[in-house]
Design brief:
The structure is a single chain. The chain is mainly alpha-helical. It contains five helices and two strands, in the order αααααββ. The chain has a two-stranded antiparallel sheet with strand order 1-2. Helix 1 packs antiparallel against helix 2, helix 2 runs antiparallel to helix 3 and helix 4 packs across helix 5. The N and C termini lie far apart (about 45 Å).
């Protein structure tokens, strides 16, 4: 059986979280994900994974804004909401609403396997098969 130095892991986790608090975007996602993977306490791991999900949605929102301005694109060509939707597995309308009226991009509840507060069929979310409103299609 593997023995872990719990205090060492806890200190490393907190150091990664402190680093994550100093950065934004994909760098924050990476640091929080590393902290979550090292957290031994399951409640701390859940908390960190929820922070990863939030940070990832916000980073996707930031990346969508940069893409809309053409940052990092060949010839600085801006992308459309339809192109962002294709990359994110969302409809153009959902991307537009989430980008212009929110702070994060995320899949609808049905795509995450949640329907009316109940667990779905157990299928994993996949970028393919998104309907017009962003709901899952089969």
């Amino acid at each position: 059986m593997t023995t872990y130095d719990v205090d060492m892991f806890a200190a490393e986790v907190e150091h990664l979280v402190q680093q994550a608090d100093q950065v934004q975007g994909a760098d924050r996602v990476e640091l929080l994900a590393r902290a979550a993977s090292r957290a031994i306490d399951p409640l701390r791991r859940i908390e960190l994974l929820m922070l990863v999900a939030d940070a990832a949605g916000r980073a996707a929102h930031e990346a969508a804004g940069a893409a809309r301005q053409g940052a990092g694109r060949p010839e600085s060509a801006p992308v459309t909401y339809e192109q962002i939707g294709a990359a994110a597995g969302l409809s153009r309308d959902v991307v537009y609403r989430q980008h212009t009226h929110g702070a994060a991009l995320s899949w609808p509840a049905a795509r995450r396997g949640v329907c009316n507060g109940r667990t779905g069929s157990g299928r994993k979310a996949s970028p393919a098969g998104t309907g017009e409103g962003g709901e899952a299609t089969t």
